[in-house]
Amino acid sequence: MRTVADYLAEALRNLGVTHVFGIIGKSICPALLKMVDHGLEFIPGRHEASSGFAASGYALQTGRLGVAFATSGPGGTNLLTAAAHAKANNLPVLFLTGHQSIQELGIPQCQDSSSYLADLAEMFRPATLFSKLIERGDHFGTILSHAISIALGPSKGPVHLCLPFDVQTEQLPACHIAIPEPEPLLSISNLNRILPLIEQAQHPLIIAGKGVTRAGAHEELRQLAETLNLPVITTPGGKGAIAWDHALYHGPCGVGGFPHGDELLNQSDLYLVLGSRLSDMTLCNLKPHNHPAQLIQIDTDPTFVGKILQSKTLHITGDIKDNLQYLLSILPPKPAAVSEGFSQPVPYQSRLPELPHLSLAAVLDRMSDMLPYDHKLFVDDGSHGFHAVQRYKVKKPGSFIFDAYFACMGNAIGMAIGAKAAAPEETVVCITGDGCFMMLGTEINTAVCKNLPVIFIVVNNKQLDMALKGMEKTTGRIDGTLYEVPMDAVQFAEALGATAYRAETLPQFSTALEAALKLKQVAVIELLTDRDEIPPTAHRVVHLN
Known about the structure:
- It contains 23 helices and 20 strands.
- With 545 residues, it is α/β, with parallel strands linked by helices.
- A six-stranded parallel sheet has the order 3-2-4-5-7-6, with helices on both faces. A six-stranded parallel sheet has the order 11-10-9-12-13-14, with helices on both faces. A six-stranded parallel sheet has the order 16-15-17-18-20-19, sandwiched between helices.
- Belongs to the TPP enzyme family.
- This is Acetolactate synthase.
């Protein structure tokens, strides 16, 4: 006879899970201790949200299931933001929360997760693809199998299970848990319609979203663009889907983009969209009368397909990589060029700003040249994120991670830690802002304690920059956007056990980054940037009708 917690830990190990992230407490203790007994490394966070982000970073880095857990009540509610973030980014994460014993339901208890107070199973339902309270041990195998199949299925995303204390410790004579096998999902009939539509178009355009990176379809994107001689632009979240200097890459569009990418959006009569919801962050400069005649959209999630643009739409359901591989297999080896006028590379970048103090744009340009080819850059949300979308030169496709859709501040800090735990040999860098850092920057201590040498670059302009600039432009007010007592990121980082550097000039930054790369320890580089530098976010105004 073995406990439900034993079967859970064994299933996770059989799925290839090596690390789990969370904060321990009474109600989740039996499950967590069994995970440790089965050889899974426990990374204790400093806040449950960051542990959830770390599990997402682990899932993104490995392609396997990420696991985040918390105790009942507030421990579980603190995970909700990370669950919604994972859902927005199609990341397979299993969120586990504790619960008082089923036999004690109806008795008021500390950190209640029942329907009498904070019903976690209900709360997680809209933030995940599946959420369930497991009330009996003999139901556990079926429910866990179902949850895993959804998390790792074609759409990929987070699931949540609420485990009562007595269910975790319940003994079962046997428990069958099905481990799902990858299953390609192709829309073959619709894929066969793509080439005729492209050949009929005058100015077809590929729009690459973050789904390309989530699917690992960078090589397929490159081959498709070259085979059809099509220009490629990227959404803010799709940055890095193709190398920055590829001859067919015409830069980012939308918020954080360059004017050239938006010009292509307004000139093209067919969009081939790969893994993008086409949110306001992408289409903010598309004029209503310039919607393309034809839209081809490859995406596992049909929620917004055909509902954003006034275009005839062909939806290709399923994994981008699988569908592009099939599409490439049926294309003629040397079709005629179908994108006349777009085939020549265009210098899409603009000149760096000239400022009296340190320019973040210049830092990003310099950092692009200094980091090794094999690295991963996690970028937090805020004006610094859109500066990075515009200015960072991605050499290795898939190495730039940024979420412009759910856009929760501080997510990159935890994600970088989770990715580093999964791939200790890879250089992992996180760009974050002072606002993000004051929310979840204590996770630096997690990295220090577990010897996960991430390089954190903190952009300190002493204000909530994106909110300040946007409010100032639209309302003339800046209420609540200035830090009257600015943070000292160096002292904060050192207090948490990290090595820290401060840079007020570009040469100081170069020296600090060079030292941090050699250090092989957790390092924080504080950038005191020019507060008046204009972020590439001011044109986020959408007119779709």
